[in-house]
Amino acid sequence: MIAVPAGVRIHLALGATDMRKSFDGLALLVQETLKLDPFSSHIFIFRGRRADKVKILVYDQNGMCLFYKRLDQGRFTWPSTQPSPDGTASIMLTPAQLSMLLEGLEWRTLVRSRQPMLAG
Questions:
Q1: What are the strands, taking DSSP E only, across the chain?
Q2: Which of 34, 25, 32, 6 is nearest to 91 (CA)?
Q3: Would you place residue 112 in the very low, low, confident or very high pLDDT band (cuts 50, 70, 90)?
Q4: In sequence order, what are the residues at sequence separation of 6 or more whose Cβ sits closer than 8 angstroms to the Cβ of residue 7?
Q5: More confident: 106 or 70
Q6: Mean per-residue pLDDT for 28-49?
Q7: Is pLDDT of 85 > 70?
Q8: Which H or E run contains 53?
């Protein structure tokens, strides 16, 4: 599991990415496609075409880190592959959603186990 420091944003790239890309190729995608700074210490997540692999790119002030995960069974839950209406090619996740994503769980629709009761 990746510990997410306070203030770090988690960007999930929409669509499929060529999983043959490594540090430089993914950093170039962040810069040109997502229009973000790959050296910002934010977390960038990419998935393969079959949705059973993800790569996570992050800069940690010493250099680039690349994490890779492959599910033995099932697929990672991913949003629509179409860019959003404002033209962005990524969405932001919370650390809890990132954790659920990496476990292969459905992270988009969370259902509370208990609703708060009315006061009084």
A1: 10-16, 43-47, 53-59, 64-70, 90-93
A2: 34
A3: low
A4: none
A5: 70
A6: 93
A7: no
A8: strand 53-59
Query: How is residue 73 written in tokens?
Result: 């069974």
Predicted local distance difference test score (pLDDT) of residue 15: 86
Note whether 54 and 68 are within 8 A (CB).
yes
**Cα 98 from Cα 1, distance rounded (Å):** 9
Q: What are the structure tokens assigned to 17, written together?
A: 């990415």
Cβ–Cβ < 8 Å for 59, 39: yes
Structure tokens at 7: 């203030």
Tokens of 45: 């997540």
Two structure tokens written together for 91: 């969405």
